[in-house]
Amino acid sequence: MLARNPCRIKGAGDETPEERPVLTLAQVFELAELLGRHPVGNIREMPSGEFQLRYRLVEGGTRAFPQYLPDRQAAERVLWNLAVEGCAAVEHDDRYRALVLLATFASLRWGEAVALTRRDIDLGAGAVSVRRQYLELDSGDLVIGPPKSRAGKRTVSFPAGIVPLIREHLRAHVPDDASVLVFAGPNGGVLRRGNFRRASRWALAVETIGLPNLHFHDLRHTGNTLAAQSGASLRDLMDRMGHDSVRAAMIYQHATSEAGRAIADALDNKIKTERGGDDDEGDGGLGGVLVPVA
């Protein structure tokens, strides 16, 4: 085991929420459902160098797309969109749904999520125990070690609303063995980030929800932001995020405070509009309002 990350790059992994997108709850669940969808079709290169697309209809049978596409990537995008619109049939590998939900609502890093074993999930308590993480070196080798910081070993509660989905994932995809990985790669091995992106159709899915530059770490960032917006204390945020330092947690609290100020300012503008602007009688804007008289 490694005591620290040997491939740490200065600045990598820093919590800078102002630079990262925050998903809405609707986007989180939409992404969870989109990942692993594989539209059923056939893409063939023609003598002209263009590509022909045929796809299976939802109601059965096949259909050819009415025009040739300039390259395979364009054909794959058209096929994906046909599936999203409900025209093309889909085969769905739903093993990535729970990964998205836990990464978001338990604020997990990639390496922490793929290192989870069945014993780390407590459905009764609605909690996950983070004990270790996998690191993928530049050489491609995988090593296992402790979480990023001393506070990284932690137990994180997740919403009761996702418990049924986590339970279904364990039932359908995880053997009844406490030591097996919850989110395994092919043949039960460690799930690698690159394989996940390809198998889950990550690029097409995040484009569909309107966030084409979304990274997996943004799910953790979204979870941290939601926790801060819930009114969590600085100490609670630090525990949930697995940080020794208060700096990252304070960034989230500050961002939430700024959002609250923006909401208040917007409400103030509405009030001013309703009241016809500032009163110029020097009474603090209370002109025309009845107040108790001593």
TrEMBL record:
Source species, domain of life: Bacteria
Keyword Nucleotide-binding: no
Gene3D superfamilies, per the entry: Intergrase catalytic core
Segments forming domain Tyr recombinase: 64-265
Keyword Lyase: no
Chain residue ranges for the region called Disordered: 272-294
InterPro entries registered for this protein in UniProt: DNA_brk_join_enz, Integrase-like_cat_sf, Integrase_catalytic, Tyrosine_recombinase_XerCD
Pfam families reported in the protein's UniProt record: Phage_integrase (PF00589)
Parts of the chain that traverse the membrane: none
GO molecular function terms listed in the Swiss-Prot or TrEMBL record: DNA binding
SUPFAM superfamilies on file: DNA breaking-rejoining enzymes
Keywords: DNA recombination
Single biological process term from Gene Ontology: DNA recombination
PANTHER family hit by this protein: PHAGE INTEGRASE-RELATED, PROPHAGE INTEGRASE INTD-RELATED
UniProt protein name: Site-specific integrase
Species per Swiss-Prot/TrEMBL record: Actinomadura syzygii
Lineage: Bacteria, Bacillati, Actinomycetota, Actinomycetes, Streptosporangiales
